[in-house]
Amino acid sequence: MTLRAATAADLDDIMALERASFPTDAWSDAMMREELGSPHGWYIVDEEAGRIVGYAGLRAPKGSKDADVQTIALAEASRGRGRGRMLLRALIEEAARRRVAEVFLEVRADNPVAQSLYASEGFVELGRRPHYYQPDDVDAVVMRLLVAGWTTSRMPDTTDAGACT
User: Fold this and answer.
1) How far apart are CA 163 and CA 115, in angstroms?
2) Percent of the chain residues past pLDDT 90, beyond the cut
3) Which tens digit of pLDDT belongs to each residue from 85-126?
4) What is the DSSP string of 3-34?
5) Do 56 and 43 touch, CB atoms closer than 8 A?
């Protein structure tokens, strides 16, 4: 597993994963190209043996106190091995570096695996957007993470470092 910054040269590989992961509502090449080049975005790819097997993106405009997880996608053969969590954590870490207070995302209501991943990292459901994903007519679950709480929960506890019992 190797994470690196996505570049415009990765567009074809990213779009192949995009279309495979989101067959009915994939972004267009033009939309993804714009995202990859935006100063407000931060996109990464996950490589294995020189092949892109996943990607993820965060939108966090300079000076903003909130950010949005734009997308996370993995090749089907790469799922279930912790790679999605690794991508998500990298996005949250970047949000923390940008001094973002909250990270938001929308996830399909019919995707319990992704919802479970987000909840396990501390995202909480805020509400639902009916009929958000088209043409499938699937609701979006809106979730939020407080970055400071996430960061604190990942710091090692040193309060008992010298204690003996």
Assistant:
1) 39
2) 83
3) 999 999 999 999 999 999 999 999 999 999 999 999 999 999
4) EEE--GGGHHHHHHHHHHHSTTTPPPHHHHHH
5) yes
Closest by CA to 73, choosing from 104, 32, 134, is 32
* Res 151: pLDDT: 83
Whether omega before 135 lies within 30 degrees of 0, making that bond cis, reads yes
CB atoms within 10 A of CB 131: 11
Q: Are 35 and 43 in contact (CB under 8 A)?
A: yes
Instruction: Quickly state the pLDDT bin for 35 (edges 50, 70, 90).
Output: very high
Instruction: Go through the domains of the chain in sequence order and give each one's CATH number.
Output: 2-154 (3.40.630.30)
Helix (H, G, I), strand (E, B) or coil at 91: helix
Q: Which of 122, 35, 125 is nearest to 73 (CA)?
A: 35
* Catalytic residue numbers, as ranges: 106, 118
Task: Report residue 153: phi and psi, to 5°.
Answer: -70, -15
DSSP letters spanning 103-146: EEEEEETT-HHHHHHHHHTT-EEEEEEEEEETTTTEEEEEEEEE
- Residue 155: pLDDT above 90? no
Task: Give the DSSP H/E element, type plus range, for residue 155.
Answer: none
Helix (H, G, I), strand (E, B) or coil at 1: coil
Number of other CB atoms surrounding residue 12 within 10 Å: 9
